[in-house]
Amino acid sequence: MKKIIINVAKTLYSVIRAVKNCGNDKFLQLDNLTKKDLCVLGNGPSLNHNLINNIDFITSRVSICVNDFISSDFFYTIKPSYYLLLDPAYWRHDSISEYIEIRNSIFNRLNQNVDWCLTIIIPSIGKKELDWESIFDQNKNLKVAFINTTPISGYECVRHFLYKYQFGMPHAQNVLVAALFIGINLGFKNIFLLGADHSWHEELFVNNDNVACMKDRHFYDNGEVKGVPFPMYHDSSEIPKLHIIFDAFAKMFEGYHYIENYANYRGVQIYNASNKSYIDAFKRCAI
Questions:
Q1: Is-contact 203 227, C-beta < 8 A?
Q2: Which terminus of the chain is more solvent-facing, meaning fewer CB atoms within 10 Å of its CB: N or C?
Q3: For 234, left (φ over 0), alpha (ψ -120 to 50), or beta?
């Protein structure tokens, strides 16, 4: 009975939020899907293995990259079709100066160096935060699409209906949850996930001041990565305690099971092709 009550409450709350946000922009639809495979590229260290050994596999498919992927020269080798910037630090007008500097660097490189068609995907809640039309008006190859990131939970049948018609998505505790969701709704039938190590717990430590710190490693890092207070992209002075961090990890891994259920509903197969990964929701494969 308790489970039923919780699911009913979650479903009703999700429907209310979905209706409230029903005016948000929808996903782009692919009119002529000539390639049915998508590579979702995370920024975990294991991606280096794939970039060295499987670059032809990646470049022969449509790809979506996330966050600071453009920091690597492989961005220009792969020429992704989609670039997802989910974290509020990439679009909030009141982000701290350090994050504004990072995103301005990303925007400048996109404007100056992208010579192929690239869709930059931003949450709808960031649509009015910045003047996106003027930011990317220097490069005709760039266009911006907005997605509805309203978290939807509750009964599966209701969730899947709301997901399909773009009223929201599973709680995107990690950007790859959103990237996989986008791939499903764009119509790809086979999605290969790479660089999704999700091994941050291996890099966690608590310093002498009882501050939880982490070494956030990426495939594009040069040199030693220093441990910093968790999380790196937090825009306040409050540092979460360890139990809060692990609770966030639990929500993240749960989100992938929501994605897998939705993929099955839409007839989509997701393969976790990461050389190293703690995600247990998707079928594993080696490429």
A1: yes
A2: N
A3: beta
Give the integer Cα–Cα distance in Å for 36 and 30.
Answer: 11
| Cα–Cα dist 171/152, whole Å | 7
Residue 165's nearest CA partner among 271, 12, 65, 19 is 19
Q: Would you say 202 and 214 are in contact if contact means Cβ atoms under 8 Å apart?
A: no
CA distance 185 to 30: 10
Are the CB atoms for 273 and 50 separated by under 8 Å? yes
> Pseudo-torsion of CA 106, 111, 113, 116, nearest 10°?
110
Residues counted in the chain: 287
pLDDT of residue 153: 81
- Enter the DSSP assignment of 151: B
pLDDT tens sequence across 145-178: 988 888 888 888 888 998 998 888 998 889 999 9
Q: Do 15 and 167 meet the contact criterion of CB atoms below 8 Å apart?
A: no
- Measured between alpha carbons, how far is residue 229 from residues 85, 197, 238 in Å? 22, 20, 10
Q: Residue 226 belongs to what H/E stretch?
A: none
For the sheet with 228-229, list strands across it. 204-206, 212-214, 228-229
DSSP state for residue 88 in the 8-state scheme: G
What pTM was estimated for this model as a whole?
Answer: 0.89
Q: Can you name the residues that pair with 38 across neighbouring β-strands?
A: 62, 191
Least confident of 24-33, 94-103, 255-264: 24-33
**Token code pair at residue 171:** 């709680």
